[in-house]
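Why do we bother with holo predictions? Because pocket geometry can differ from the apo form. Keep that in mind while you read this record for nicotinamide-adenine-dinucleotide.
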Amino acid sequence: MILKDRIAVVTGAGSGIGRAGAMIMASEGAAVIIADRDPMAGEAAALDIREAGGRAEAMATDVNDDKAIEALIAGTLSKYGRIDILHNHAGIQVGGTLTEVGTDGMDASWRINVRAQFLAAKAAMPAMIAQGGGVILNTASNSGVFYDREMIAYATSKHAVVAMTRQMSLDYARHNVRVNALCPGWVDTPFNEPFIAQMGGRGAIETYVRTKIPMGRWASAEEIAEAILFLVSDRSSFMTGQALVIDGGESIG
Ligand code: NAD
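The structure, written out:
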């Protein structure tokens, strides 16, 4: 097991990609703290991991709340004594152009997609330095490395995640803390439901995915979890400051 006894905190791990990442980390021996704002989803994910023989517990956390983020990191450190892996995964998508998105949508995108990751990393970093190293994985998106139409708040905040990741990686490489960004393309999770509704329903999105994605299909959350495992484990031990894109070729053209 490549993550045996490592302590991992995953935000937004109650569903979709975060959940699949938590499952694969636990299957490789990590003890996983499931930090989701939905307590039922968090408990269900933790229970699934335990039923599969892994170690997990849920700590209900809304990353919109600074105190909750600080309590998550402090609570994990006081209970487990270390944090080896911090996967900042929770995020929001506010669709629209400059003239459509309000300052509230821009502020919320910054707060959840960027500021919450900044704060969680800031809280965990002193412990990672003191323990001799650690791994931070910040979920961006392929929207963090290329541009799609009508996505000003999402693209801007996800590009900022990639920039922040690169800056953090430079500042802490000497402390053996690796920081990378995860950049998935289309993954069929509830996250896309508002966008699907905006596009006109399931049929429209299926046509879009078939025609616009070079590989002609969605990713599964499990395919993204393989990349998560690579990035949080020693398999990527000399990799820091990178944005790993897993998008079936969408951002290539
Ligand atoms: P999902 O909807 O399946 O799961 C998101 C989970 O995050 C839910 O359990 C939800 O309760 C939790 N959550 C939402 N807001 C939260 C908050 N404020 N605090 C704590 N938990 C919160 O979505 P998903 O697709 O697995 O993951 C979403 C993340 O992945 C976002 O950061 C998104 O930008 C990124 N992403 C998704 C896709 C995709 O196509 N699904 C593509 C690229 C990037």
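The radius of gyration is 17 Å.
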